[in-house]
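Sat 14:20. Reprocessing the chain from the morning session after the first attempt stalled halfway. Input below, unchanged.
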Amino acid sequence: MSYAIIRCISRVARGAVVALAAVLSSCSYAGHDDALSQRFTWFSYINGDDIRARCAKGSTDLYRFVYNGIYIKQARTYDIAPASQGGGFVLRARVLGPSDLSDVTLDPGAIIGDPLDILAPFAGRKARGTLSARDIDALDERLVTSGFFQPAPKGLYLRSEDFFWTAVACVNGRVTFNAWKYPSDGFNALTFPALLFSWDETGVAINPPRAVSEFEIYGGPDSKDHAPQFTLTVGENGLAGIGTLF
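Finished this time. C-alpha cells:
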C-alpha cells in the first residue's frame, strides 16, 4: 500500500472519530461503564442525567464526582452505587488523559484489522473497589462539610481549561448537584476529594489545581485550535444549556 493511500486512510479515520464525537457529545449518558460513553456524552454524564432518571422516592443512593484537571490534560471520574450482590457499595474510578485528536497516531493496518483501534485514545485508566456502609457515612459527612447540599452556584462558568469539581447524587430519593471552581474559598474548603483520592486505585497521579498559562495548556495557537474545548454553565440544580464537546 502506498504512503499516500496510508495517509489518506489516516485522515479519513481521524475525521470519522471527530465526526462521531461531534454527534455523540450531545447525546444522553445511559450509565454504561466505558470511557467512550463517558467521553462522548460528557456533559450529560457530568449532569448525571442517568442518575436523575433513576432517582425517586425509595430508590438506592447513587453518587458521581468529576474532577476536571484541565480537560485535555486530565479528567477523573468517580461513580458509587450499591453492589449487585453481597451488600456494600462499588466505586468505579476512571482517569481520562490527553485527548487531542491531532496528536493521535493511527495505524491503517490496525484499523483495518480492528476498527475500534481508532477509539484507543479514549480508553482511560480505571479501577474498581468496594466500599462499606461506614465509608458511605463518612462520604456523606464530607459532602455536608463541603457544602454539597447547599444551592449550586447558579451562573458559574466551568471551562475545559479550568480546575473544577462537580458532584451529583441521588440521596434519599432526591437529586442534588453542585460545582466548585478553582481558585475559590468553596473549592479550597472541599473535604470529599481527599476521601475519594484515598479510595482511588488507578495509580495515576493527580493533576493539582494551580495557576497555568494558555501556553502551558496548549503549547501554541495551532494546538489550541485542534483541542476539544467547552464552557458549561451551572444552573438551578444542574447544568444549564448543554452544548457539544468539539
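The chain has ten helices and eight strands.
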